[in-house]
Design goal:
The complex is a heterodimer of chains A (778) and B (185).
Chain A: H1 13-31, H2 55-71, H3 79-85, H4 88-107, H5 115-136, H6 141-169, H7 173-183, H8 185-219, H9 242-246, H10 275-304, H11 315-322, H12 331-353, H13 361-398, H14 404-407, H15 409-429, H16 436-495, H17 516-553, E1 569-570, H18 573-590, H19 596-619, E2 620-621, H20 632-657, H21 675-683, H22 687-696, H23 699-744, H24 753-761
Parallel strand pairs in A: 1-2
Helix pairs in contact in A: 1-2, 2-4, 4-5, 7-8, 8-10, 8-18, 8-19, 10-20, 13-15, 13-16, 15-16, 15-17, 16-17, 16-18, 17-18, 17-19, 18-20
Chain B: H1 10-19, H2 24-37, H3 56-59, H4 63-66, H5 71-78, H6 88-98, H7 104-115, H8 125-136, H9 142-156, H10 166-174, H11 179-182
The chains are: A mainly alpha (778), B mainly alpha (185).
GO cellular component, one term (chain A): plasma membrane
Domain TMC (chain A): 515-630
Membrane topology (chain A): Multi-pass membrane protein
């Protein structure tokens, strides 16, 4: 135990004497603890030791000390008597003091004190705790107490080191801070969101790879051994062509990337790894993990956001005190910010000064209805277009002579719609004449509806295809059984030896089923890849080429390209964030059918981070009008949550209702995909668990459980309403109290601790002119 | 145990970590930045707590503060002598209060001190006018300035003394949606 003692001159006769008493008594207590005999750290009844002990404790200690002195003997062996003589009340108070000091140490960084004062108080508190913590241990529990104290200290130190290590591990911090200082915190929030997504995808990738892909690769059958893992004979000549590979056919289709490769053996390898079960669990677990992470982040963000104030309650005050972005470190951004603040003030002043414009309400309403109708039409139009294109691509699948455009038509159309419609919506929204913040919300909502509509139309069209394939499967099953019989018949006929068993048919010759899961997986992968390509190309052309043209063509152009049209691009935050959210939705949907998709996404996010950081710094300019949607962090998280649920639905639907293909994937041969769970329960778990689950699945148990949950929700709802009501009451009370003070107009000498701290921060010099003397009769 | 460094003793680093929101690495980096401002003035070895202060003009030349309209006030608020000369303790204190992990309440207290230009513990109209001129670089006309200051006081003043006490300021700022996210370093 370290003890810090000052060896200093005594400050005054009485005080010294009192301190000496304390030290004497305590040192004797410590000395007489068995095993700790002998002087240590200069203890001794006669040295002029003072220690920095805060005042209030002295009284307790002196009382303890006096009681101590009366009954102590310097080197007594009976420790238990002396420790008990320090009464329970004194011990309890001492313990309280120690706890208070510990709390002070933990919260000292939150106090608005000068650093020197903090350091002094910290040191005093630490000395006090160190010194008296040992004295508190008594009797048999003493050694255990000291050990506990030491372990707590070590644990705190370990936690601190771990926190240090963890902050050092966060990637790209410098890069994001750079972007932040140039463009403000709203642009940086996109990159922080991107980094968060990257982290989540990395975990999902870890699950998928570690529990599904690697076991199949290491312990499963190799390529070419069974039909589902081999390229069919008909496709083999073209299987290595680049064009076929970029379409994810050929060797790509029959690889670990897609569902169809995995074998349905119940256990594989030495470790008896249950691959089908693991596949299903990982699929469902990915959703569970994503849900948990999104909700946890939403809860954290919700804490940070302050209370709800009315929109117009503190307009001018907020503009004055909260409009400057303290993270700006770049001169150009700062200039823009000054200009934007000035404009914003001027706007508010104008709003304040003039009366409401005489506007034609009917015209405005008509225009708004018109705008909404137009937008609904375009949304419907885009939905139909996608449906049409998907149908066409099904027809194309049967033909072989396709041009590049026809092969990629679906993905191109979807990406183009995503590019073209948002600016179209913005132009139509000019008709509506909303406040910019409201207009931004409408715009985000419409883009969201567009993406959602597109995605779901795509899904429905895909499901049509799946149903077709399922029908096809039946006929192919019959055909392949027939072909197998024919093969054996031919073999026995040709070999003239009816006793030999024929070798199994070569895997590439077996007639394959249509394997709808792999087809769905391929569609999602192609969509994701084309989305990546379109995004990168857009940045390259829309931002980089534009910047190069504006910069270099400016020398020989009639008007100023930099100031007028087209000038440099601004970073489109909401578009990018929505793109990220929807991309993640597609990954969630497709990951079950194409385990490799998560890996592709991880690579995409990683390269996106570097690419977009470079693009932003090199080709974009800071926004002219900085307009953050308030509390936008939780808005985007809410979107992500919604997309998560919406992508969960199709996957769960297919797991529950559609039958898996009979000859590909880990669930082949079973009636439903979740049958693998039933199998595991029956075969792998002890018998009583099976009966337990069957009881748990009993409707007689489930219905009461559902009722209970509904009741719990209702109860929590009413409790939260009650809290809200009491909140309102308290607010009203506070308002009334403030109104009373308003009448009194007397503001001096607050007992608020915060006010006292503020006084301390004053350098004892007020620059305010002295208050004028009160006029008589006021 | 980490790199061997001789700038601070381990106890000093632990004390700093207890008193600020920074990790060990960040404190060492801060010392590097502090030293960069005045290498001939600030010693490398801080184990015996030398009493060195870096003047205001050098601190406000830091890229983080250079563009801030309130940089002088910020530095003055955190300086012990009120003139803006920061010792290393004050320097660390300033960045700790402004950093991302420091709580809203702490930032509110310091924000109030920063915006109180004449240090009378209230934000009065004179303070507001100075603030507004710094924010808009003098682009508003005097009538507009008066109007904005009057409106701001009218909105936030709860006890009717036509200036903002800390309670008024805190009440107004706690409801603001943008305060925390744009006020951190």
């Amino acid at each position: 135990m370290k003890c810090f003692f000052h060896f200093s001159e005594p400050s005054g006769p009485d005080v010294t004497h009192q301190h000496l008493n304390i030290i004497t008594s305590l040192s004797e207590v410590i000395q007489t603890i068995p095993g700790e005999r002998g002087p240590s750290a200069g203890y001794g009844p006669h040295s002029g030791i003072t220690c920095a002990v805060p005042e209030p404790v002295d009284q307790h200690l002196s009382r303890a000390g006096h009681m101590q002195l009366s009954s102590c003997s310097s080197d007594s062996g009976s420790d238990s008597d002396e420790e008990e003589s320090m009464s329970e009340g004194e011990m309890a108070r001492l313990m309280e003091e120690v706890e208070e000091k510990k709390k002070l140490i933990a919260t000292i960084r939150n106090k608005p004190w000068r650093m020197k004062r903090r350091l002094t108080h910290l040191r005093e508190a630490q000395e006090f705790v160190d010194k008296f913590e040992g004295a508190l241990g008594k009797g048999k529990g003493r050694k255990w107490y000291a050990y506990k104290v030491m372990m707590t200290k070590k644990w705190i130190k370990f936690q601190r080191d771990f926190e240090n290590f963890r902050t050092a591990c966060i990637p790209w911090e410098r890069k994001i801070k750079d972007v932040e200082s140039h463009f403000g915190s709203s642009v940086a929030s996109y990159f922080i969101f991107l980094r968060w997504m990257y982290g989540m995808n990395l975990v999902l990738f870890g699950f998928t790879f570690g529990l599904v892909v690697i076991p199949e690769v290491l312990m499963g059958l190799p390529y070419g051994s069974i039909p589902r893992k081999t390229v069919p004979r008909a496709e083999q000549p073209t299987a290595q062509d680049y064009s076929v590979l970029t379409d994810f056919n050929g060797f790509c289709k029959y690889s670990v990337l897609f569902y169809g490769y995995y074998n349905d053996q119940r256990t594989i390898g030495l470790l008896k790894f249950r691959l089908p079960l693991s596949y299903l669990m990982v699929g469902i677990g990915s959703f569970g993990y994503s849900l948990m992470v999104v909700i946890r982040t939403m809860a954290k963000n919700a804490d940070v956001g302050g209370g709800d104030g009315d929109e117009g309650e503190f307009t001018f005050a907020w503009k004055m005190f909260t409009s400057w972005d303290y993270l700006i470190g770049n001169a150009e951004t700062a200039d823009n910010k000054y200009a934007s603040i000035t404009t914003s003030f001027k706007e508010s002043i104008v709003d304040e000064q003039e009366n409401q414009k005489d506007e034609n309400i009917h015209l405005r309403r008509f225009l708004r209805v018109l705008a909404n109708v137009m937008i609904l039409c375009s949304l419907g139009g885009s939905g139909y277009l996608i449906y049409f294109v998907v149908k066409r691509s099904q027809e194309f699948a049967n033909r072989d002579d396709l041009s590049w455009y026809e092969k990629n038509e679906l993905e191109l159309i979807m990406s183009l719609l995503g590019l073209v419609c948002p600016p179209l919506f913005e132009t139509i929204a000019e008709l509506e004449d909303y406040h910019p913040r409201i207009a931004l919300k409408w715009q985000l909502g419409r883009i969201f509806a567009l993406f959602l509509g597109n995605l779901y139309t795509f899904l429905f069209a895909l499901f049509d295809e799946v149903n077709n394939k399922l029908v096809e499967e039946q006929s192919i099953k019959n055909a392949s059984i027939w072909a197998m019989k024919e093969y054996y018949a031919n073999f026995t006929r040709l070999s003239n030896d009816s006793e030999a068993t024929p070798p199994p048919m070569d895997p590439s010759d077996v007639i394959r089923g249509p394997c709808w899961e792999t087809a769905v997986g391929i569609e999602f992968v192609k969509l994701t890849v084309s989305d990546i390509q379109v995004t990168y190309l857009t940045i390259l052309i829309g931002d980089f080429a534009r910047a190069v043209i504006v910069r270099f063509l400016n020398y020989c152009w009639c008007w100023d390209l930099e100031a007028g049209f087209p000038s440099y691009g601004e970073f489109d935050i909401s578009g990018n964030v929505l793109g990220l959210v929807f991309n993640q939705g597609m990954i969630w949907m497709g990951a079950f059918y194409a385990p490799g998709l998560v890996g592709i996404n991880v690579l995409r996010l990683l390269s996106s981070m570097y690419y977009q950081c470079w693009a932003v710094m090199a080709t974009n300019v800071p926004h002219e009008r900085v307009f953050k949607a308030s509390k936008s962090n939780n808005f985007y998280m809410g979107l992500l949550l919604l997309i998560l649920f919406l992508s969960l639905l199709p996957v769960v639907y297919t797991i529950m209702t559609l039958p898996p293909s009979y000859d590909c994937g880990p669930f082949s041969g079973r009636a439903k995909m979740f049958d693998v769970i039933m199998e595991t329960i029956d075969l792998d778990l002890p018998a009583f668990m099976g009966t337990l689950f069957s009881y748990a699945a009993n409707p007689g148990l489930i219905i009461p459980a559902v009722l209970l949950m509904v009741l719990a929700i209702y109860y929590l709802n009413s409790v939260s309403e009650a809290y809200q009501n009491s909140n309102m009451e308290l607010k009203k009370k506070m308002q009334m109290a403030r109104d009373e003070e308003k009448n009194r107009r007397n503001n001096t000498d607050s007992t608020n601790q915060v006010m006292k701290d503020l006084e301390d921060l004053l350098p004892n010099r007020s620059l305010a002119p002295p208050a004028p003397p009160p006029e008589p009769g006021q | 145990m980490g790199n061997k460094q001789t700038t601070f003793t381990d106890e000093q680093l632990e004390a700093f970590q207890d008193c600020t929101f920074f990790t060990r690495k960040e404190i060492l980096r801060l010392h590097g930045r502090y030293r960069e401002l005045a290498p001939h003035l600030v010693p490398l070895d801080y184990t015996n707590n030398p009493d060195i202060r870096v003047p205001l003009t050098l601190i406000t030349s830091m890229p983080e503060l250079k563009e801030n309209p309130f940089r002088d006030r910020i530095v003055e608020t955190f300086s012990e002598d009120g003139q803006g000369n920061l010792s290393f303790n004050d320097f660390v204190d300033m960045f700790s209060a402004l950093c991302e992990t420091s709580p809203r309440e702490l930032k509110t207290i310091y924000a109030f001190k920063i915006y109180d230009f004449n240090r009378d513990n209230f934000i009065c109209k004179v303070d507001l006018e100075k603030m507004l001129n710094k924010l808009t670089k003098g682009e508003l006309t005097p009538e507009e300035v008066t109007l904005v200051c009057d409106k701001a006081v009218e909105e936030a003043d709860l006890d009717g003394d036509s200036k903002l006490s800390f309670a008024d300021f805190e009440n107004m700022v706690s409801k603001a949606p943008d305060f925390l996210s744009s006020g951190s370093t």
